[in-house]
């Protein structure tokens, strides 16, 4: 098959990334806030929206349900008029099969507005099994009938409406927490959700829902309590910054000996990352406009860390940082406790010259869910090792960005193939790399 030249980035590495870039709203919030708009017959306005593919996938799915969506990419404003909602044609919905994980979150809003929902096969990165059992269990507890027999997706109905329930999540899943909130706000009566996730993107979704008229509180023990209301109205909201993208550029600055001012980056959501960045030897300066990240010269230090749910070290920060750790002095240990299979991206790094060994054991201070199971979910990274450029195939979103960082760090040329995957979560990354004076074409 002929290679799509648009989908390959030629990188000549070994040059520090220097300059200023701007990061807009969080991919993992914006897409959910767009779904929330479906709950209210009215107009919602979302600001600080990044130009990424996930926004277009959710827009398309909303439009297939009769919702008016206007995306102003330059201004970063999405306007959603969900006054009219209709059942989408199953064949049309199927065309979006495999494109994102967001469609499952349409379940609650569609059940409230239409009494039924058809959810296509989900996409998203291949970093573990990524089951949706918690989502479906939550919907069942709230009174929905879930039919998984449909060959192309899941058909869900709620002929008697949704009713508040007591729900406990076996693991603090971000998506299942959002699923429950989006379904419970208009359910009749009270819902208690214990064992929930409290990521900043979830709390921003709660802020949106509160603006819409919902009643949601959260206890110190990560229990959400929702008092169902009869109706909601549209909202106007500015998204929090994408802390994953900000940390990705910070890691790129560290790995390439660079100096990047990330406009828009904010401290509170990044505190855990900033601590680790400092321990490794990276410098940062926090201002009202953003955060400057740089390599101060000298040796970087190795570190031991575990990924975890908030306020722990995000799993999505892990992949870009591992590339920087290949340049740190000594043995670093990374224990991945959120996804069982998120180290596949290290193989090309090893081929580029990195020394990374994967282990099935929990090499962190606490055993995780993947203990005694056959998953290589701990990594030991020995550095510093020079990296050599080579051709790389992008495996997934964050792994792909990590490969890009590796190519920019490496001596010599690399062809990074399949870069359109990176467009899912990194707005205009080619333009940003050019602004940082990277040698790419
Ligand atoms: N899980 C289950 N059953 C479920 C749901 C989740 O076992 O029904 C497990 C998963 O397999 C995983 C763990 O729970 O091992 C955590 O998954 P979670 O549901 O929290 O992840 P998600 O909602 O599918 C979101 C982000 C991910 C991010 C995670 C964790 C979006 C669209 N995706 O995924 O982002 O890694 O939360 O913070 O919000 C990315 O941006 O690259 C990305 C993968």
UniProtKB/TrEMBL annotation:
<protein>
    <recommendedName>
        <fullName>UDP-N-acetylglucosamine 1-carboxyvinyltransferase</fullName>
        <ecNumber>2.5.1.7</ecNumber>
    </recommendedName>
</protein>
<comment type="pathway">
    <text>Cell wall biogenesis; peptidoglycan biosynthesis.</text>
</comment>
<keyword id="KW-0573">Peptidoglycan synthesis</keyword>
<keyword id="KW-0133">Cell shape</keyword>
<dbReference type="InterPro" id="IPR036968">
    <property type="entry name" value="Enolpyruvate_Tfrase_sf"/>
</dbReference>
<comment type="similarity">
    <text>Belongs to the EPSP synthase family. MurA subfamily.</text>
</comment>
<keyword id="KW-0132">Cell division</keyword>
<dbReference type="GO" id="GO:0009252">
    <property type="term" value="P:peptidoglycan biosynthetic process"/>
</dbReference>
<dbReference type="GO" id="GO:0008360">
    <property type="term" value="P:regulation of cell shape"/>
</dbReference>
<keyword id="KW-0963">Cytoplasm</keyword>
<dbReference type="GO" id="GO:0051301">
    <property type="term" value="P:cell division"/>
</dbReference>
<dbReference type="InterPro" id="IPR013792">
    <property type="entry name" value="RNA3'P_cycl/enolpyr_Trfase_a/b"/>
</dbReference>
<keyword id="KW-0961">Cell wall biogenesis/degradation</keyword>
<feature type="binding site">
    <location>
        <position position="101"/>
    </location>
    <ligand>
        <name>UDP-N-acetyl-alpha-D-glucosamine</name>
    </ligand>
</feature>
<dbReference type="GO" id="GO:0019277">
    <property type="term" value="P:UDP-N-acetylgalactosamine biosynthetic process"/>
</dbReference>
<feature type="modified residue" description="2-(S-cysteinyl)pyruvic acid O-phosphothioketal">
    <location>
        <position position="125"/>
    </location>
</feature>
<feature type="domain" description="Enolpyruvate transferase">
    <location>
        <begin position="13"/>
        <end position="433"/>
    </location>
</feature>
<dbReference type="GO" id="GO:0005737">
    <property type="term" value="C:cytoplasm"/>
</dbReference>
<feature type="binding site">
    <location>
        <position position="316"/>
    </location>
    <ligand>
        <name>UDP-N-acetyl-alpha-D-glucosamine</name>
    </ligand>
</feature>
<dbReference type="InterPro" id="IPR050068">
    <property type="entry name" value="MurA_subfamily"/>
</dbReference>
<dbReference type="InterPro" id="IPR005750">
    <property type="entry name" value="UDP_GlcNAc_COvinyl_MurA"/>
</dbReference>
<comment type="function">
    <text>Cell wall formation. Adds enolpyruvyl to UDP-N-acetylglucosamine.</text>
</comment>
<feature type="binding site">
    <location>
        <begin position="27"/>
        <end position="28"/>
    </location>
    <ligand>
        <name>phosphoenolpyruvate</name>
    </ligand>
</feature>
<dbReference type="InterPro" id="IPR001986">
    <property type="entry name" value="Enolpyruvate_Tfrase_dom"/>
</dbReference>
<keyword id="KW-0131">Cell cycle</keyword>
<feature type="binding site">
    <location>
        <position position="338"/>
    </location>
    <ligand>
        <name>UDP-N-acetyl-alpha-D-glucosamine</name>
    </ligand>
</feature>
<feature type="active site" description="Proton donor">
    <location>
        <position position="125"/>
    </location>
</feature>
<keyword id="KW-0670">Pyruvate</keyword>
<dbReference type="GO" id="GO:0008760">
    <property type="term" value="F:UDP-N-acetylglucosamine 1-carboxyvinyltransferase activity"/>
</dbReference>
<dbReference type="GO" id="GO:0071555">
    <property type="term" value="P:cell wall organization"/>
</dbReference>
<keyword id="KW-0808">Transferase</keyword>
<dbReference type="Pfam" id="PF00275">
    <property type="entry name" value="EPSP_synthase"/>
</dbReference>
């Amino acid at each position: 098959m002929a290679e799509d030249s648009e989908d390959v980035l030629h990188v000549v590495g070994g040059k520090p990334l220097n300059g200023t870039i701007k990061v807009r709203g969080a991919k993992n919030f914006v897409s959910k806030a767009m779904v929330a708009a479906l709950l209210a017959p009215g107009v919602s306005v979302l600001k600080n929206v990044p130009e990424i593919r996930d926004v277009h996938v959710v827009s398309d799915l909303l439009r297939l349900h009769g919702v008016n969506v206007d995306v102003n990419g330059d201004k970063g404003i999405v306007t959603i008029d969900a006054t009219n909602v209709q059942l989408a044609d199953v064949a049309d919905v199927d065309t979006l099969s495999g494109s994102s994980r967001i469609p499952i979150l349409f379940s609650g809003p569609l059940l409230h507005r239409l009494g039924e929902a058809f959810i296509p096969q989900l996409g998203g990165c291949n970093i573990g099994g990524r089951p949706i059992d918690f989502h479906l269990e939550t919907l069942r507890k709230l009174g929905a009938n879930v039919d998984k027999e449909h060959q192309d997706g899941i058909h869900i109905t709620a002929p008697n409406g949704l009713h508040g329930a007591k729900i406990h999540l076996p693991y603090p899943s971000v998506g299942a927490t959002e699923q429950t909130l989006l379904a419970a706000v208009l359910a009749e009566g009270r819902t208690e959700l214990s064992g929930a996730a409290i990521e900043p993107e979830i709390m921003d979704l709660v802020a949106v829902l509160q603006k819409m008229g919902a009643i949601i509180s959260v206890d110190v023990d990560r229990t959400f309590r929702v008092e169902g209301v009869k109706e909601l109205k549209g909202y106007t909201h500015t998204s929090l910054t994408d802390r994953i993208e900000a940390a990705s550029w910070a890691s790129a600055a560290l790995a390439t000996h660079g100096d990047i001012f990330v406009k828009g980056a904010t401290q509170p959501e990044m505190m855990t990352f900033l601590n680790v960045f400092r321990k490794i030897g990276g410098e940062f300066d926090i201002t009202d406009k953003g955060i400057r990240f740089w390599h101060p010269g000298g040796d970087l230090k190795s570190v031991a860390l575990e990924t975890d749910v908030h306020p722990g070290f995000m799993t999505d920060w892990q992949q870009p940082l591992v590339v920087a750790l290949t340049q740190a002095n000594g043995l670093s240990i990374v224990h991945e406790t959120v996804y069982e299979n998120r180290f596949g991206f290290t193989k090309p790094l090893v081929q580029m010259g990195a020394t990374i060994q994967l282990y099935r054991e929990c090499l962190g201070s606490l055993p995780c869910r993947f203990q005694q199971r056959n998953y290589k979910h701990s990594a030991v990274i020995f550095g510093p090792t020079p990296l050599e450029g080579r051709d790389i195939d992008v495996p997934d979103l964050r792994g792909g960005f990590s490969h890009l960082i590796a190519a920019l760090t490496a001596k010599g040329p690399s062809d990074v193939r399949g870069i359109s995957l990176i467009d899912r979560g990194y707005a205009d990354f080619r333009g940003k790399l050019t602004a940082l004076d990277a040698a790419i074409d």
